[in-house]
Design a protein that fits this description.
A four-stranded antiparallel sheet has the order 1-2-3-4, with no helix packed on it. A four-stranded antiparallel sheet has the order 7-8-9-10, with no helix packed on it. Strands 5-6 form a two-stranded parallel sheet. It is of the alpha+beta class and 165 residues long. Helices cover 27% and strands 33% of the residues.
Length: 165
């Protein structure tokens, strides 16, 4: 009787060991398969190894040609915003124009001397130095003759000012 008990106990131990080894083999096989599949897919999605050190040429869209009138003035800044690359011009009277990369005028801001205009910017702020885009929108940076730098929103609201000494 004791032999039968020991024999069945040995069979159960061997059965548990076989199940444990089978699980390990299945886990290792699945991991190896996923690794090989990732390598194969990754090699098809990226550049070949022999081209890895050469610079890639990126074409975001077809080349576009447009025309911007010279009356828009001097190019002050190029900005990246929601609609793509934008160009910011300032003419001799201080009018600021926003133009898309295709040459289409997106908007303009008037400048004023005495009487404020809706959305206008005082000429006393000086010349437009550059434009920036952040999460709050487009900002304009001006510098006057005394060296005062002003940060202004596209709506004409002054956000900050720095005095140079």
């Amino acid at each position: 009787m004791s032999n039968a008990y020991e024999s069945s106990s040995n069979i159960l131990r061997m059965n548990n060991m076989t199940t444990h080894i089978s699980r390990q083999i299945a886990l290792v096989s699945a991991a190896a398969f996923l690794f090989v599949a990732g390598c194969v897919i990754g090699s098809h999605l990226t550049r070949p190894l022999w081209l890895a050190n050469q610079p890639a040429v990126v074409h975001a869209a077809e080349s576009a040609e447009g025309v911007v009138p010279k009356s828009y003035g001097k190019l002050v800044a190029a900005i990246a915003d929601r609609i793509g690359t934008g160009l910011v011009f300032e003419d001799k009277d201080g009018v600021i124009r926003f133009v898309s990369i295709t040459g289409m005028k997106e908007g303009q801001l008037a400048r004023y001397d005495q009487t404020p205009t809706h959305g206008g910017i005082p000429k006393s702020y000086g010349r437009l130095v550059t434009a920036v885009v952040n999460s709050n929108g487009t900002g304009l940076i001006f510098e006057d003759a005394e060296g005062t730098i002003r940060f202004v929103t596209i709506a004409g609201v002054k956000e900050g000012e720095l005095k140079r000494e």
